[in-house]
Amino acid sequence: MGTSSTLGGGYLFGLPVGFVADSIGATIGATAAFLLGRTIGKPYVISKLKDYPKFQAVAIAIQRSGFKIVLLLRLVPLLPFNMLNYLLSVTPVGIVEYMLASWLGMMPITFALVYVGTTLKDIADVTHGWSEVSTSRWLSEAPFIKLEP
Questions:
Q1: What is the CA radius of gyration of the chain?
Q2: Would you say residue 96 lies in a domain?
Q3: Is residue 106 a part of any domain in this protein?
Q4: Residue 45 and residue 85 in contact, taking contact as beta carbons nearer than 8 Å
Q5: Does some domain include residue 149?
Q6: What are the per-10-residue average pLDDT scores of the chain (149 residues)?
Q7: Is residue 148 part of a domain?
Q8: Contacts of 7 (CB under 8 A, 6+ apart)
Q9: Closest CA to 90 of 149, 30, 46
Q10: Which residue range is the domain that position 10 belongs to?
Q11: Based on the structure, what is the number of domains in the chain?
Q12: Which of 6, 30, 45, 149 is the most exposed place for a label (fewest CB within 10 A)?
């Protein structure tokens, strides 16, 4: 799921329902990409590995601790989630480990984005110009943070 849809989930459904829906949706989307990369997209993904030479170390670490490495990669995203889905598909991590670690690891950012979505005044904030909103602006408008001028 993208940032806009996660923010929209918070705006439209509120925190509890938006969080659950976005969390499940993000996990299903990540799993679909993983399965695509593991099956018909495998030759393409393998050809892209040359662009990420350090990913070989990740693949080796996954052989030892698949769940933990996937969880850490989700918590501290060193690569965009979409690229990570495909790259992880050619590692030995099992599908159940991948799904559970991805679900748990994506929870903090999903929760944060859904929460921000609940604070939006208009759905247009999600669909138009969100990328132009500065971090300092949304932090100053967030109800839980007060910035001193």
A1: 17
A2: yes
A3: yes
A4: no
A5: no
A6: 79 90 94 95 89 84 93 88 90 95 95 89 61 48 45
A7: no
A8: 113, 114, 116, 117, 120, 125, 126, 130
A9: 46
A10: 3-141
A11: 1
A12: 149
